[in-house]
Write a structure and sequence with these properties.
The protein contains eight helices and five strands; from the N terminus they run αααααααβββββα. The chain is globular, with a radius of gyration of 18 Å. The chain has two domains: 90 residues, Ribosomal protein S4/S9, N-terminal domain (Ribosomal Protein S4 Delta 41, Chain A, domain 1); 81 residues, RNA-binding S4 domain (Structural Genomics Hypothetical 15.5 Kd Protein In mrcA-pckA Intergenic Region, Chain A). By secondary structure, the chain is of the alpha+beta class.
């Protein structure tokens, strides 16, 4: 199973957040989906950890095996595990393309990468999980794919040059650069059980 193809609005309502990008359904329906949506949701500690893990899987569009491998690799390092996992998630090529504003969503960014529109250091890369490094130059091979209507994310670790249509990795992202609604420490706790 590759990517999630099911009902996206239902997942967004279940989490109470725009998981897959912009969704108007949260403005219309404030309650979670299901027959008993008006009753408060009772979750165990394990259920809360599982929920935060699933949210990260949906937001970044990755599989559970990829996330577990990231956590186990990060646990072997001497740095803070949460910081390393968040860095691994944010430095994926599809996530960087999304953060640079070349695509409106992570799904579109992944498609741009797989269709060979993106080059890293003047080499075509079509693997969405490619990990970029400090000093890498990301460029859209087709100047037509550089969108002016997409709002650029204000990331301190990325720089976009409008004249040359080139993005540059200035520094590696930290834990604070990950969305505050994503709970990376609970994912680390889930896999350390």
């Amino acid at each position: 199973m590759g990517r999630y193809l099911g009902p996206k609005n239902r997942i967004s309502r279940a989490f109470g957040d725009r998981v897959f990008g912009y969704s108007k359904v949260l403005q219309r329906r404030k309650k979670r989906p299901g027959q008993h949506c008006d009753k408060p949701l009772k979750r165990t500690e394990y259920g809360q950890l599982e929920s935060s893990k699933k949210k990260i899987l949906y937001v970044y569009g990755i599989r559970e095996r990829q996330l577990s491998n990231m956590v186990f690799k990060a646990a072997r390092r001497k740095e803070n595990t949460e910081d390393v996992v968040s860095r691994m998630l944010e430095t994926r090529l599809d996530s960087v393309v999304y953060r640079l504003g070349l695509a409106g969503s992570r799904k579109k960014a992944r498609q741009m990468v797989s269709h060979k529109f993106i080059s890293v250091n003047d080499k075509v890369v079509n693997v969405a999980s490619y990990s970029v490094k400090k000093g890498d130059i990301i460029k859209c091979r087709d100047n037509e794919c550089v969108r002016t209507d997409v709002k650029r994310n204000n990331c301190t670790w990325l720089e976009w040059d409008d004249v040359a249509n080139v993005g540059r990795i200035m520094e590696m992202p930290a834990l604070k650069d990950v969305s505050r609604k994503l709970n990376v420490d609970s994912v680390v706790e889930f896999y350390s059980r």
